Amino acid sequence: MHPILLLLLLASAALAQTSAPSNVRGGRYPLIHPDRSVTFQIKAPTAKSVQILPAGNDNGMGKGPYTLSPAQPEGTWTGTIPPVRPGFHYYSVLIDGFPANDPNSETYFGWAKPTSGLEVPDPALDFYEAKPVPHGDIRIHHYHSTVTGQVRRAFVYTPPNYDNNPKQRYPVLYLQHGSGESERGWTAQGRANFILDNLLSAGKAQPMIIVMEQGYAIRKGSSSEPGARGNEAFPDVVIQDLIPHIDKTCRTKPDRNSRALAGLSMGAGQATRIALANPKLFGYVGAFSGASPSSVDPKTAAEAKFRLLWIGYGELDGRYNGGKELHQVLDKAGVAHTWFEGPGSHEWQVWRKHLHAFAPLLFR
Amino acid sequence: MHPILLLLLLASAALAQTSAPSNVRGGRYPLIHPDRSVTFQIKAPTAKSVQILPAGNDNGMGKGPYTLSPAQPEGTWTGTIPPVRPGFHYYSVLIDGFPANDPNSETYFGWAKPTSGLEVPDPALDFYEAKPVPHGDIRIHHYHSTVTGQVRRAFVYTPPNYDNNPKQRYPVLYLQHGSGESERGWTAQGRANFILDNLLSAGKAQPMIIVMEQGYAIRKGSSSEPGARGNEAFPDVVIQDLIPHIDKTCRTKPDRNSRALAGLSMGAGQATRIALANPKLFGYVGAFSGASPSSVDPKTAAEAKFRLLWIGYGELDGRYNGGKELHQVLDKAGVAHTWFEGPGSHEWQVWRKHLHAFAPLLFR
Predict the structure, then answer these.
(1) Is B221 helix (H, G, I), strand (E, B) or coil?
(2) Which value does ipTM take for this structure?
(3) What's the whole-number mean pLDDT along residues A160-177?
(4) How far is B57 from chain A (nearest CA, A)?
């Protein structure tokens, strides 16, 4: 081959590599190759062993751990892992066995701590990317909870032009994260704001407010450690504190037909339980990878007469069979609902797709 | 001593310990003792060495590294470091020499990566705490930059009741972070929102919008790596993109006398340089721990006729002498300015105090 041609080929291959969007500002690694294999580089001159460990058993990065090798420049370790599924994946860097974060990556609150995340773009999907369309704001909103006796915060998405229409009122979707995550998850990992921006720009969803709170809450005066991780008081926070506060401070339509409750995994269980116990408050319910026959009683669901009961699962999800069983139980009992299944496991890429399919059905 | 008395004493001592407010939800360690010594506990069963390393040379946690010892339960390491200055301090956990984050702590973007932080309450100061007063929102605001060709985001504080007064317009403070930090710094580390909430509740400041952007920007078409860390295009982003966008999308008073620019460390240099080059745009300038004779020319400063030129330093700051020299140079040249000095080094506790002293002087 002519050396110039070879150079051009090498240059175009180099161009096709991309630094992960989840890297810190200016970070080259993790580096994603055209076949979606990913190269990591870690500076750890005094470590004896450096490995990449995907979090969980059904991670899109595979099972691992993947062992990195000493490399140049001196003191660095590097390695390339097999092609990764598009989407967002939690991972750790094992330094002599200790699960550290990758200093090259942003952290995302998951697994009950700040955890490194790898975002791998999907060449076939861009519904969750930041596009040149009007953007809504994400408001970090602090409020006092009478139930916990503490200041809590909600992340509140307001749609584009919310400020320009001071007389317009909006329906509200309450949207919950999964176990070990936080109120930051649906925007940082899930990109709920960009999903809605894009749907709204295409006229595919009703303008709505989305309220994302933390699914953990311990009752004031409880004997638990301050800040402990229980969630027994969360339903009361939603009903007694959060909804009244949002209805007071945002321009909501404060009625059942304009209020939805959804969540993923642990949040799906919370959403279905809270909505089934309060059918007068919620007209729409979404359970992303978390509803099962044990959390949804067909008789109660029939009586609730939701305008939409939406249940979704990824086909690789370990709990998929339980979801499918619920779908069949509800069908048999004649309870109207929407069943959604698609590729993927218990992961954010699936939940982005769930929100993208669920939101257009709301408030019609 | 009577055993009951001893028990009571032990119980009250135990009560006086507090988990750091910077810990993850439910995290017991780092644990702050009444004398402000701090106990760390790290689970690292396969590590050979575990140490706590305060970031930087003038950290309120001291110099370190502090070596932890194997402890019970099996696989954990623990140690107590000497009394720490109140405020916020970046640190790492050295695992066999590798600077990892403490899984017990939240991460904060500093030192160009997500870094563990230790928040130590000050028994004598609460002006930056979340109190039962009306809270403004922090809006995560995405916008397109013509200068960089990318979507950027600003954190925008809107004061309490901003939404309830749709005809009121507000002055704006543009407020910048330091080197290696991000647009998240002034709220997560600096608590700018709570500082303003408390000042406003006490009637000590004018209601204002605060805009916090990222001080890094690379011009579109630059040959730098995508996402590289330069800041050469930041002044153009502020003048050509950010201010016009904020004036278009927020209810601002878009004039010099209602616009301030301030920053800390690197951000102080950026604030003074941008304001001195654009004196028709900014009436108020604040330089927190970053102005020096090399960044502020007395003749240019005199001609700019700012309504306020405010310069502050902590007395333990390595650059304090440069700031003091600037103060004297400006005095000698007859340039009106405010000089502020107080305890502390190059640290967030000082910058919280700076904002608390600076904000009440604005827009009078």
Answers:
(1) coil
(2) 0.94
(3) 96
(4) 21
**Residues A349, B361: Cα–Cα separation, whole Å:** 48
pLDDT 10s digits, B283-323: 999 999 999 999 999 999 999 999 999 999 999 999 999 99
Helix (H) or strand (E) holding A353: helix A348-358
Chain B, nearest residue to A166 by Cα: B166
Reduce the DSSP state of residue A288 to 3 states and report it. Answer: strand
- Contact status, residue B44 vs residue B73, Cβ threshold 8 Å: no
State the burial class of residue A124 (Cβ atoms within 10 Å of its Cβ: 0-12, 13-18, 19+).
exposed
Per the structure, the count of domains in chain B is 2
Domain shared by A27 and A95, yes or no: yes
| Largest Cα span, chain B | 77
What CATH number corresponds to the domain at position A331?
3.40.50.1820
B316/B297 Cα distance (integer angstroms)? 25
Can you give the pLDDT at residue B221?
86
List the single best residue of A49, A104, A107 to mutate versus B (max B Cβ within 10 A).
A107
Q: Is the pLDDT of residue A241 over 60?
A: yes
**Residue A47's CATH number:** 2.60.40.10
- pLDDT band at residue B167, thresholds of 50, 70 and 90? very high
Q: Spell B259-275 as b/e; 16+ CB within 10 A means b.
A: bbbbbbbbbbbbbbbbb
CA-based nearest residue in chain A for residue B25: A227
Is A90 among the domain residues?
Answer: yes
The pLDDT, as a whole number, for residue B222 is 84
Per the listing, tokens 């507000």 go with: B170
B249 touches chain A (CB under 8 A): yes
Same domain for A152 and A258? yes
- Contact assessment for residue B342 and residue B350, using Cβ atoms and an 8 Å cutoff: yes
Looking at the fold, whether A99 and A143 belong to one and the same domain comes out as no
Rg over alpha carbons for chain B, rounded to the nearest Å, is 22
Which residues of A, range 206-225, sit inside 8 Å of B by Cβ? 214, 216, 225
In a domain, A6, yes or no: no
Q: What is the Cα–Cα distance from B118 to B109, expressed in whole angstroms?
A: 13
User: Quick one: tokens of B121?
Assistant: 């309450």
Taking a contact as any Cβ pair under 8 Å apart, which residues of chain B between 100 and 159 contact chain A? 100-101, 103-107, 109, 112-114, 130, 132, 135, 137-144, 151, 156
At A6-15, the pLDDT tens digits run 555 555 544 5
- Is B128 inside any structural domain? no
pLDDT one-digit tens code per residue, B15-63? 579 999 999 998 999 999 999 999 999 999 999 999 999 999 999 999 9
Domain assignment of residue B258, yes or no: yes
What's the pLDDT at B349? 98
Query: How far out from the chain centre does Cα A196 lie?
Result: 14
Containing structural domain, residue B76: 16-120
Q: Are residues B114 and B166 in the same domain?
A: no
Helix (H, G, I), strand (E, B) or coil at A330: helix
Average pLDDT of span B238-264: 98
